[in-house]
Amino acid sequence: MSRRRALLPALVAIALAGCSGGATAPSSAGARELVVYAAASLGSVMADVAAAYQRASPGTTVVLSTDSSAALETKIEQGAPADVFLSADTANAQRLADAGLAAGAPVMFATNGLAVIVPAGNPANLASAADLARPGLKVIAAAESAPITEYASQLVANLAREPGYPPGFETAYAANIASREDNVAGIVAKVALGEGDAGIVYATDARGSGQVAAIDVPAEANVPATYAGVVIAASSDVTGATAFLDWLAGPDGQAILAAAGFTEPGG
Questions:
Q1: How far apart are CA 243 and CA 217, in angstroms?
Q2: Which of 243, 230, 244, 237 is nearest to 22 (CA)?
Q3: Which residues lie closer than 8 Å to 174 by C-beta, 6 or more apart?
Q4: If you average pLDDT over residues 90-102, what whole number do you get?
Q5: What is residue 130's DSSP assignment?
Q6: pLDDT in the model for residue 30
Q7: Would the CA dihedral through 108, 91, 186, 140 be positive or negative?
């Protein structure tokens, strides 16, 4: 699988100066910079999270980079500097912990659902998720290693057991995959441009984009996606990174995530 040679920066008004030299230790007791690697599906909400945390913790600058959770996990394994890793699943965070690259166990901080998206106006006229198996439909998917791919596979398997769904639904869906993007943000972008007829993404992605529409997914078939974060053991500011992750999993961080459509773990 091809990997991006540079991480996509989150669209936040935060200076990236100093990022190339690594996660920077606090220059004084009241000043610190935290480098946060976050799953692509967190891109929009993390701008609000970063701004709120900087207000709550004067002197702290949060530097964000987003991409597929799997790509970010690999970069950390290869020594890329980061203080906190926020994954769209538990597996990638646990992988770092198992390798001794995390300072502590993964912290579950959010859950999400899945949605089927189509371009605005629904030009292919999908009536339901059953149409994902319609011959000739162009489905945009993500790389095999991206968490959304595993979640989407689970959803498709669940849909195949729903009443009224055609025989061979899973096989027909797979045959309709026209391209695989680096991450879920790539799915949304390509569908929004009309370069595909549909895609399976996180519910918050469907809600957060004004350029795509959502097709209902039977609630009993939907798949919960659990997000987990870890503090990176090689961080030069483990204390500050731990404080950030605790804040994100606490009431203030949860309120921001909830406003964007995420739910609390176990909620």
A1: 37
A2: 237
A3: none
A4: 98
A5: G
A6: 61
A7: negative
Domains and CATH numbers, the chain: 8-111+226-259 (3.40.190.10), 114-221 (3.40.190.10)
The position carrying tokens 């998720």 is 129
130-160 confidence digits (pLDDT tens): 999 999 999 999 999 999 999 999 999 999 9
State how far the Cα of 195 lies from the Cα of 7, in Å rounded to an integer. 23
Structure tokens at 63: 């530097």
- What residues contact residue 148 under an 8 Å CB cut-off, 6+ apart? 41, 88, 142, 183, 184, 187, 200, 201, 202, 225
Residues 215, 219, 222, CA angle at the centre, nearest 5°?
80
Reference 24, options 61, 52, 70, 79; nearest CA is 61
Residue with tokens 């990236």: 16
Selection from 146, 141, 113 nearest residue 225 by Cα = 113
